[in-house]
């Protein structure tokens, strides 16, 4: 049998309550383009095996692998290793694709210089959001939108690299670049971030294109455990720490330290201990203060262990000339980002 054009990978850990929606959405999107769907069960301890048994009974083509070492980067690397498709697509276990998502995500790969494509992430609440949780908090919930026009991303001026709830990579290129770093990415309940950003940096540095596909949208379902002020405070602190570690790996000590000019003024913000009724503006300021604290802590941590931190920050093979055609599915011959 010919290799599928893509493998949609859903990595999951203790998300039995939402996994079926994500997998069924992936299966529905994969069938029209001949893609495969692979679930990586990452050391789940809830009813995930039972849910997967039900899903494989419904769809015998569904592949499931069991990865017992905990860590999202470990699970993603397992998915990347197991993928049969020329493109590996990562969909979060609490995400649901829109109509036309997969063809739109795969189209830019008609250009062989493209190594990564991501699309918009829309926030959907499974329960009513608290009144203070307005739009400025949504990016913390993985909301992502780089506009309505396809473009190449350079991780600046608002055109940030795609995020992991809705991202894809040219399989062979991502493998050759070393995959996802174990130093980054969620580990159990600790929300370490920027594992996908780290891989994008390595690919971009080697000359590969990172693209945004505005029609490749997914919904990201937000459940009540993320709708607390305490969750946002911790998330921002870990985001700052992760940003410093990722920058040290990919941008060097001088540029990472230079970013302190943006963070240090935030440390002067008056601390806010959230209590009901929560003041949304003060909570947002506290979250940003915590992010700054996390960045400083991550910078110090990374400097103390710099050699080890950068050990697996390998470069990808150089990208081919942009005019050369590559793989694509559902793509026009002239597809570009």
Break the fold down into its secondary structure elements and pairings:
Blueprint: E1 6-12, H1 16-30, E2 36-42, H2 48-58, E3 63-67, H3 72-82, E4 87-91, E5 95-97, H4 101-106, E6 114-118, E7 121-125, E8 151-152, E9 166-170, H5 171-176, H6 195-205, E10 209-212, E11 218-222, H7 229-250, H8 252-258, H9 260-263, H10 280-304, H11 306-309
Parallel strand pairs: 1-2, 1-4, 2-3, 6-10, 7-11
Antiparallel strand pairs: 4-9, 5-11, 6-9, 8-10
Structural class: alpha/beta
Give the overall shape: globular
Q: Kindly report the CATH topology of the largest domain.
A: Spore Coat Polysaccharide Biosynthesis Protein SpsA, Chain A
Count up the helices: 11
Low-confidence stretches: 323-335
H/E element sequence? EHEHEHEEHEEEEHHEEHHHHH
Q: How many domains in all? A: 2
Radius of gyration: 20 Å
Strand content: 15-25%
What is the CATH first-level class name of the largest domain? Alpha Beta
Q: Any overview of this molecule?
A:
The chain is α/β, with parallel strands linked by helices. The protein folds into two domains: 7-227, Alpha-Beta Complex (Spore Coat Polysaccharide Biosynthesis Protein SpsA, Chain A), CATH 3.90.550.10; 230-309, no CATH class. It is 36% helix and 16% strand. It is built from eleven helices and eleven strands. It has helices at 16-30, 48-58, 72-82, 101-106, 171-176, 195-205, 229-250, 252-258, 260-263, 280-304, 306-309; strands at residues 6-12, 36-42, 63-67, 87-91, 95-97, 114-118, 121-125, 151-152, 166-170, 209-212, 218-222. The strands form two sheets. An eight-stranded mixed beta sheet has the order 3-2-1-4-9-6-10-8, with helices on both faces. The protein has a three-stranded mixed beta sheet with strand order 5-11-7. Helix 1 (16-30) links the parallel strand 1 (6-12) and strand 2 (36-42). Helix 7 (229-250) packs antiparallel against helix 8 (252-258). The radius of gyration is 20 Å and the shape is globular. The model is unreliable at 323-335 (pLDDT under 50).
């Amino acid at each position: 049998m010919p290799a599928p054009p893509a493998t949609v990978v859903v990595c999951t850990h203790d998300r039995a309550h939402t996994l079926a929606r994500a997998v069924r959405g992936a299966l529905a999107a994969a069938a029209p383009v001949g893609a495969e769907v692979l679930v990586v069960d990452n050391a789940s301890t809830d009813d995930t095996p039972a849910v997967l048994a039900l899903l494989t009974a419904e769809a015998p083509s569904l592949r499931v692998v069991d990865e017992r070492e905990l860590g999202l980067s470990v699970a993603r690397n397992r998915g990347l290793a197991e993928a049969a498709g020329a493109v590996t697509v990562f969909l979060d276990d609490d995400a649901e694709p829109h109509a036309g998502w997969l063809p739109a995500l795969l189209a830019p790969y008609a250009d062989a210089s493209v190594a990564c494509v991501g699309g918009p992430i829309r926030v959907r609440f499974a329960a009513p959001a608290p009144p203070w949780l307005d739009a400025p908090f949504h990016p913390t919930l993985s909301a992502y939108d780089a506009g309505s026009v396809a473009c190449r991303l350079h991780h600046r001026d608002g055109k940030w690299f795609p995020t992991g709830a809705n991202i894809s990579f040219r399989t062979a290129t991502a493998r050759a670049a070393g995959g996802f770093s174990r130093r980054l990415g969620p580990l159990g309940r600790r929300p370490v971030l920027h594992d996908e950003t780290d891989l994008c940096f390595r690919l971009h540095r080697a000359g590969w294109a990172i693209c945004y596909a505005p029609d490749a949208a997914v919904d990201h379902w937000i459940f009540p455990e993320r709708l607390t002020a305490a969750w946002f405070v911790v998330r921002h602190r870990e985001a700052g720490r992760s940003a410093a570690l990722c920058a040290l790996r990919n941008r060097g000590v001088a540029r990472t330290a230079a970013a302190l000019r943006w963070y240090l003024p935030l440390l002067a913000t008056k601390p806010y201990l959230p209590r009901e009724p929560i003041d949304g503006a003060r909570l947002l300021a506290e979250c940003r203060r915590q992010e700054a604290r996390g960045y400083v802590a991550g910078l110090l941590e990374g400097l103390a262990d710099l050699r080890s931190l950068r050990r697996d920050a390998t470069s990808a093979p150089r990208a081919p000339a942009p005019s050369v055609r590559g793989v694509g599915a559902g793509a026009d011959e002239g597809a570009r980002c």
